[in-house]
Amino acid sequence: MLHQERIKPPLYVYPMDDWKLIEKRFYPDLLPQMETMFSLSNGYLGMRGTFEEGAPVYQNGTFINGFYETWPIVYGEEAYGFAKHGQTIVKVTDGSIIRLYVDDEPFYLPAAQLLHFERVLDMQSGVLSREVLWETPSGKRVSIKSQRLVSFQYRHLAAISYEVIVQNARAPVVISSEVMVPQVEQHMDGDPRLAHGLKGRVLHPRVNYFRDQRLMLSHATDKSGMALACGVDHTLATECSYIAKTQSSEDSAKVLYNLNAEPDMPIKLVKYITYHKSKTQPPEELCERAEWTLDRAVDHGFENLLEGQREFLGEFWERSDIQVMLDPETAVRTTREIQQWIRFNLFHLCQASARVENTGIPAKGLTGSAYEGHYFWDTEIYVLPFLVYTAPQIAKNLLSFRYSLLDQARQRARDVNQKGALFPWRTINGEEASAYYAAGTAQYHINADIMYALKKYVDVTGDQAFLFREGAEMLVETARLWYDLGFFSDHKEGKFCIHGVTGPDEYNTVVNNNTFTNLMARENLWFAAQTVETLKTQDPERFLELVDETGLNPTEVQDWKRAAELMYIPFDEKKGIHPQDDSFLDREMWDFENTPKEKYPLLLSYHPLVIYRYQIIKQADVVMAMFLLGHEFTAEQKKRNFDYYDPLTTGDSSLSVGIQSILAFEVGYDQKALEYARYAVLMDLSDVGGNVSEGVHIASMGASWMVMVYGVAGLRDSDSVLSFWPRLTRGLERLRFPLQVQGQVLEVDITPESITYSLRRGEGMLIRHYNEDIRLSAENPAAVRPFKT
Amino acid sequence: MLHQERIKPPLYVYPMDDWKLIEKRFYPDLLPQMETMFSLSNGYLGMRGTFEEGAPVYQNGTFINGFYETWPIVYGEEAYGFAKHGQTIVKVTDGSIIRLYVDDEPFYLPAAQLLHFERVLDMQSGVLSREVLWETPSGKRVSIKSQRLVSFQYRHLAAISYEVIVQNARAPVVISSEVMVPQVEQHMDGDPRLAHGLKGRVLHPRVNYFRDQRLMLSHATDKSGMALACGVDHTLATECSYIAKTQSSEDSAKVLYNLNAEPDMPIKLVKYITYHKSKTQPPEELCERAEWTLDRAVDHGFENLLEGQREFLGEFWERSDIQVMLDPETAVRTTREIQQWIRFNLFHLCQASARVENTGIPAKGLTGSAYEGHYFWDTEIYVLPFLVYTAPQIAKNLLSFRYSLLDQARQRARDVNQKGALFPWRTINGEEASAYYAAGTAQYHINADIMYALKKYVDVTGDQAFLFREGAEMLVETARLWYDLGFFSDHKEGKFCIHGVTGPDEYNTVVNNNTFTNLMARENLWFAAQTVETLKTQDPERFLELVDETGLNPTEVQDWKRAAELMYIPFDEKKGIHPQDDSFLDREMWDFENTPKEKYPLLLSYHPLVIYRYQIIKQADVVMAMFLLGHEFTAEQKKRNFDYYDPLTTGDSSLSVGIQSILAFEVGYDQKALEYARYAVLMDLSDVGGNVSEGVHIASMGASWMVMVYGVAGLRDSDSVLSFWPRLTRGLERLRFPLQVQGQVLEVDITPESITYSLRRGEGMLIRHYNEDIRLSAENPAAVRPFKT
């Protein structure tokens, strides 16, 4: 239950549009969050939606996924096994700045007399454009049109087209296109969710040079040993005369165009910006790669990049779009807004994941540095379902990336006195970077979350090769961890208990037998045992390899099965619910009534010891388990659990509302489900969490997709067959979306009258509609069914 | 149970002596711990037992109790209400150095040819003396005799007498007497028990000057705003000719005596060293005070100081000595050793507490900077019993000091969202300095510990004025904290439960219903209610004042009584024991058998999450409760509890063995009790904890006294009457000790034949011998009783 109305005005500044996010005038107060909202990214390179002119600015940030610096974590009081090094994503060299001067006076938005202002993020063209008509104090009308893109096609490339026309006069115009290393700022205000740790200079200059209008700056970090080259090139198209001048130093460079603007004569500068990073290659090598990228970009030209964006996004929407309206012309306003909201979420999911290769997806994508650019379970549990069903190759990349960190996970397990492997709760480079174990390292469930995602990926794609190769090794090591972590407790009739862990809910930490963790660990153990056994019979050669890689002992598999079978799952017979953990029901009830709104999120107003003492929940925990492993609960248990936990759940985490929504749908609370869905979908658009200025909430965006697909359409896939339990919900005129399953494409189309399942591509598949099994095939590609009444 | 033999060789280097600790030769390997063992202190000023020559040295430290610097605590991950500032005791200006050069070559112990070496800490004279006979490479025999004292009489004063005689030749002799600000060293090796936090320069120079042989350096800290003046003066007595030269800079100063030594002609330098500190007065003022102290010292002379020491200690031993032998001449070696061991503990208790005024007693006294010079519950629970019975004025000072911190405790309660007052777990200035809440702030029991000590002080001294004035106010605020912290739990039939706390045992943190805490909180609530009610009838005026000071509402007292009456005390009917907390018995058993010795203390080898998962105990917890509140347990419960917990108790804390010993005595395990007693008494002498180089364990020293008085003699005082349950223990020939009770003095004298209770001073008192009440009076001052058979 959300204990306050959190939909705030920012939402209403965006005019209704199916495909665009539009800002009709300049809102100084909304500047910080607009920078986030208008961020561009391709999953490798991200640029916040700052103005080209570099000012005004809240937080100027260009990010390269996985480009980070480390720092020694200092503990007030150290203890054995605490994580040693922090990792923080670095704000890299900023190539976006293009300053404009007319009559040698700068164009500065807040002070400028604007006859027109519009900024548009077009989710079909993948372009952020801004149109301004500026009347200078001397009455000159200057039209400024910029277009910015971060290329999906060329992952190292961004480009900006900047067009200036002095409409009614001659004027001296100066355009200064710049590249610079950003100042290091400090966040030390105590909000644990923000980035911190880095002090002083982070990027140390290496090679830098320029040639004509091409600028090249390269830098390296000190401790993480990463190198970065940022190259920029320009083409200027105009019939106005001008002089160009280039300057360069270690940390900044610029090309200055000194133009004699003629009335109505366009001046169009295109700026190409490229970033190459490496942990092993020297800056010289990266500069060379940057040269290639720039050569290609300049050769192809800006129009070609625009085309590439449109093409890429065309395919993306084809694979991923969720349509929610019947007829754009007649649909009511609310419905049309929903379309925009949902697409905004999907678009950012695309931006966060499109070109992710050899990294994870940071909690904020590449739209801000909060959470330090770390990868959490968000990727596997919140984003991966979307990717598995719409872009399985990316899902595979992400799981492969986890696999590449297995050795560090093995080391981490040893660091905390355990066998097997323990994936880090938060990381960039594979080492644990959580400096607060109670809400970090204690979240052992990360292991099971990743294995859960692996299972989903394998189930939905049928990629057994990946399971047998990378998957099996991860399964062995994670199962080992669980078996070593828990114990058969005499106190619980020999059941397998897991103590001293934190579940998803960070308002109850270091508990015994967290229901979520135990259920997920059991799934992990089962899946590991089953995979090893299958492998042994189906691919004995690979099995022997696995034994070799992991030192697997045959008795281990028996141990896992026994632990799984005897896994203790807390259940309170009297209340008929699953306690969140052994002592959850013992706790005091929180006095919600007398908690003022401004005390939320509670973590910013109460000492952890206070919060931990109450039956108060930051985010779905048992409810999350009921979503991920729905088949483990009866319908009655689900309802009782939801009824018990929902009122205790503050939703202080952005990860909460989406899951609450899906379960509310399932247990039949449509009104509540829609309310939660609204919060999930509007998390960023309406700044529900109050911190969108620091970046979007990628997990909540993933949850938005899940709310539609798992919530409204009632998809369930944790059991063997793909089943749907569609709900006719007021406020949604239509819900249509595609799902890729084992190389085939299923389209689900829900209208108030019926549900249509269509096989868009593929040989055939079995699905379940409520309790009816339906076989779709090339011959019978569609089935129309009514709602259950 | 101690899982390893920990009595190590160092013990055996000290020859047997009733009153002296003697080092017969220079042991380079033992240098670090010898510096601790030979530390001198008066509770205000402490100097480690370094050599006058300044080298070799492990850790050169002069400490002023409560002279500290603060620093911002940096958390890996910050949260609301975490302690903000660290506090660290500062190594102050070192005035002890006297360097000696013969033939312009330095006297350097490790390299010197020594014909004789002896160092003696005389516990009757309060003097550390060293005698060395050095043969220089050129065959000159140089006798060096030094005597050092930290004055009990003049708390700001230390003095060193340094006598040099070249026995067999003429020689140029240079004596350089120095004062210097020590280098700041860094401890960053991850051991949480050491001091850390301070970086760079801590003492910033203020006034400095010299006049003749008098040197004056003053400094101030940056953040804590404390000022310090260190003054030194000299007298040189010799018939040899010499030139004296004085030099001074901001951070060091020296007087250099360039002498022409004649054969067998003594050169005797006396150095007087004084320290004055203040948080409010400027350095100039402190320098002036230092001048007074030096004037007086020089005027009285060294002999006078020696006399003062002897007199002070004479009174101390009169009040505090524990005699353990019948006849020094005939007693067996073991017994005589015990005498030395016990006196060593008592002597350090004296040194730590003698002149404590307006501060607490640091965990290491003033013998090292481990635990950063912080005050813990050690003072109230481990040291105060000794002081209450032997030096009640000091006990009162310590409680008054706590009272002076009440406002900060009120603020701390608000910081962690509670009502009333919460005393800091560790502090110098009254603010919480614990940077790890699980083993810090969560130890709410500190409140009850202080109130327990208050009750003991009041019970034993009868000082009702203190109870009504300072005591009542502290009681109201601490009771409020408990009432606000706990709740009446439906889940426990309406009992009053206290969740999310850490008891004394730091291997099980943030638990629900810690038996120790609940019992102690109940005592706190009862005592508060009773005091307020007594006050209301006996001193209505003061009662009204109290209401005014605290805003006390009459219903509050009823609340406290109800909470106390309904306090939930965990009890396991099946096992017949008190679980340490709600979930303790659910935990896994630790595999002691397969834990290698080098893994102890476990906290240095296992992640906290691992440790917290097991039934493994760092230090007495339920056992501690059975000691402090013995009347709350039946004899059978005590035995069962002890039997259950003792094998789980690692004794990784030095606070453990003493309490285990007392309870082992009580439940009749004499052999085990003696073994534990030995560990307690030898904690420092034998470096049981392996870290005596960082300072002595004052709490364990207090426990050593308690082991004799509460353990062997079986004193119990938590109920209304002073009772004894003496045990005839092999290995102790005799046990005789005095107790001050309400201004009277009782002597208890236990021999293998009988127990004699003698009223040495006073009108009369009621005591209990086993179950027999005995009234001692001026007429019948002594009672002789047999052992219970």
In short:
2 copies of one chain form a homodimer. With 789 residues, chain A is of the alpha+beta class.
Features:
homodimer, alpha+beta, five-stranded antiparallel sheet, 18 helices, 28 strands, 23% strand
Give structural notes.
A nine-stranded antiparallel sheet of chain A has the order 1-9-10-11-12-19-16-15-14, with helices on one face. With 789 residues, chain A is an alpha+beta fold. The longest helix of chain A has 24 residues, at 515-538. In chain A, strand 23 (735-741) and strand 24 (744-750) form a beta hairpin. At the A-B interface, helix 13 of A face helix 13 of B.
From the helix content, strand content and strand pairing of chain A, which structural class follows? alpha+beta
The coarse overall form of chain A would be globular
**Number of discrete helical segments of chain A:** 18
Largest sheet of chain A, if any? 9 strands, antiparallel
Chain-averaged pLDDT of chain A: 94
Tell me the distance between the termini of chain A.
Answer: 28 Å
> Which percent range fits the helix content of chain A?
25-40%
Low-confidence stretches of chain A: none
> Over all CA atoms, what is the radius of gyration of chain A?
27 Å
The strand order across the widest sheet of chain A is 1-9-10-11-12-19-16-15-14
**Biggest interchain interface, per-side counts:** A-B, 53 and 53 residues
**Which percent range describes the beta-strand content of chain A?**
15-25%
